[in-house]
Amino acid sequence: MNKELRKAVIAGNWKMNKTPLETAELINELKPLVKDADCDVVVCVPYVDLQTALYCAENTNIKVAAQNCHWETSGAYTGEISTTMLKEMGVEYVVTGHSERRTYFGDTDITVQKRTRAALDAGMTVILCIGEYLEQREQNITFEVVSMQTKIALEGVKEEELDRVIIAYEPVWAIGTGKTATAEQANEVNKFIRELIAELYSPEAADKFVVQYGGSMNAQNAEELLAQPDVDGGLIGGASLKVADFATIVKAASK
Ligand code: PGA
Predict the structure, then answer these.
(1) Could you give the residue ranges of the DSSP H alpha helices within the chain?
(2) C-alpha of residue 202 to centroid of ligand 1, in Å
């Protein structure tokens, strides 16, 4: 498989952190540190920070993502945000299926599929999160889980749309726990996902397809993880809130 065919994507998932004022501060500090990055740099910010993030990131190489979206374009869905709204603001990226959405807010494989479809229909790029719980890894069903999540989420997605899909493999047991998957564990599942893309679409599509790793990636372990042949970047939570650490990870991905 050809890593040269893929540009790494480093995305910071801020989760429910940072106010609009803090957003401006963080992005303004980040800008000069990542301006020469040889990878794509994305910040996934809370809805209320999107406008500020877009404003601060204008004319830079930093891209802005929402952390979720609804599947309908409008309607009686109190508290939800549609891709039409995001697009009109100028948001080009959106995260779907994050394990925190699945665990705490009732997202299922089917709703993740619908959100992913809506984002693609709106012309956005999706960072689709998948990954197993600790119990599933211990039962040796990681590949089954990851395969099912991928197949359901990508149902109906055409090969020509795949350049707007990034999969973030995030073992749930590694998220926010400080317990990173080893570089080998991360690569093993990322490779499996790429092979699945080859099977569902084509080997050419798989060669170009970006598969990130996420789960306690930080300034210390990023280099080793990102050096793996099938790890094409990272979705970074905690460490993305510290400008210097995030910039270090971006640097590691630019090698
Ligand atoms: P973490 O979060 O880096 O804090 O483990 C990753 C994520 O949830 O995307």
Answers:
(1) 20-34, 50-57, 83-89, 99-104, 109-121, 134-138, 142-154, 183-200, 203-208, 222-226, 243-253
(2) 30
Range of the domain at 60: 3-253
From 10, 13, 133, give the residue whose CB has the most ligand 1 atoms within 8 Å, as the site to mutate: 13
Q: Which atom of ligand 1 is nearest to the CA of 240?
A: 3
Could you report the per-residue pLDDT of 95-146, keeping only the tens digit for each? 999 999 999 999 999 999 999 999 999 999 999 999 999 999 999 999 999 9
Domain count, the chain: 1
Q: What is the CATH number of the domain that holds 214?
A: 3.20.20.70
Confidence class for position 255, pLDDT limits 50, 70, 90: confident
Give the separation between CA 123 and CA 208, rounded to whole angstroms: 19
Q: Which of 70, 92, 98, 132 is catalytic?
A: 98
Q: Is 170 a catalytic residue?
A: yes
Mean pLDDT score across all residues of the chain: 97
